[in-house]
Amino acid sequence: MAKVKTAISIKEDLLEEMDSIARKRRMPRSNLFEKAIEDFLERQKNKQIVNQLNAVYSTPPTAKEKKLLRIITEQSRKIAEGEW
C-alpha cells in the first residue's frame, strides 16, 4: 500500500518517549507511529463489536426464542445422555 507523508503536532515528552521506544526496537519513528495507529484502530473496532454484542444480548429473548432455547436444551440433554 502506498505511504503518504503527514505532519502532526504532539507533546514533546510523548515524542521523546516514542523516539526512545523506536531506538530500542531499532525501527524508524514512522513505523512506530504506524503500528500505534493500527493498534488504536483495532481496539476501536473491537469496542464497536463489543458494544453491538452488548446491545443484542441486552434485549430479552422473545417467546419464540425462549421456546427454541428449551427445544435445543432438551435435544442437547438427550444427546448427552445417549437418547438419540
UniProtKB/TrEMBL annotation:
It comes from the Bacteria. InterPro entries: Arc_rbn_hlx_hlx (IPR013321), Predicted_DNA_bind_prot_RHH (IPR038733), Ribbon_hlx_hlx (IPR010985). Residues 3-42 form the Predicted DNA-binding protein ribbon-helix-helix domain. GO terms for biological process: regulation of DNA-templated transcription. This is Predicted DNA-binding protein ribbon-helix-helix domain-containing protein. It comes from Candidatus Desantisbacteria bacterium CG_4_10_14_0_8_um_filter_48_22.
